[in-house]
Amino acid sequence: MSTGEVLYEGKAKIIYRTDDPEILLAQYKDDATAFNAQKRGTITNKGQMNCAIATHLFKVLEAAGVATHFIDQPNPNQMRMRAVQIVPLEVVVRNIAAGSLCQQTGLELGVALSQPLVDFYYKDDALGDPLLTRDRIFLLELAMPEQLEQLRQLALQVNQILINFFHQCEITLVDFKLEFGMTSDQQLLLADEISPDTCRLWDDTESDPDRRVMDKDRFRRDLGEVDTAYARVMERVLAQNIYVS
User: To pair with 238 at 20 to 30 A between CA atoms, which of 56, 73, 141, 211?
Assistant: First the structure.
């Protein structure tokens, strides 16, 4: 299958058309951004590591019954995937207080939530990807009530699968962002990626608050050894069977 023109270039990936209009090719980049791209940098081999991690996690989710856009990984930093129309909502699932949740609520970093919290953000860089209420989502006609509930339930299902998987990796899943898309035949699929770029992951073998960080917070907070942390995540993820017990 040949690669065609660039359809879209984002912060972390370049999306190419292929000779099949229902299939796209994503090339993962080493570029790193934070704070709505106000901070920029490069993480050595990030593209290959994130592609490998996302590939394995999509396989884990597919094996557990979650439909995704993943097809295969033809090259170390490339993923073939089904073409979808992205739903303009970022779905964030939180298990432990961190990041903006602490800033907006006063909760202390590391407080375990009594139940997972699902937040919806408007996927719009120009507006800074704002947090939306349910009524604002309906006002902007970003999703119908049934679809919004479907997104919520799918996100919670993914959360439980990933919590169990990362537990086997001796990693705590603090929070993460998901994106979903609709195929041409109106099937809702999990899309984008799941990686240290889109998750907060803490190393269960480390007690130091800074050393335990295994995700893009190392880049955001200038903690150093970002590539080393991503590599540890990749090694532990790839060492696990895709069928989660």
Answer: 211
Give yes or no for a contact between 91 and 85, defined as CB atoms under 8 angstroms apart: no
HEC letters along 191-225: ECCCCCCCEEEEECCCCCCCCCECCCHHHHCCCCC
Query: Cα–Cα distance between 148 and 89 in angstroms, integer?
Result: 10
Taking the CA atoms of 18, 24, 29 and 34 in sequence, report the sign of the dihedral they define.
positive
Is 154 in contact with 179 (CB distance < 8 Å)? no
pTM of the complete model beyond 0.90: yes
Beta strand extents in the chain (DSSP E only): 3-9, 13-18, 23-28, 31-34, 39-42, 70-75, 78-82, 85-86, 89-96, 112-122, 131-132, 171-182, 188-191, 199-203
Residue 39: which of 225, 224, 220, 226 has the closest Cα? 220
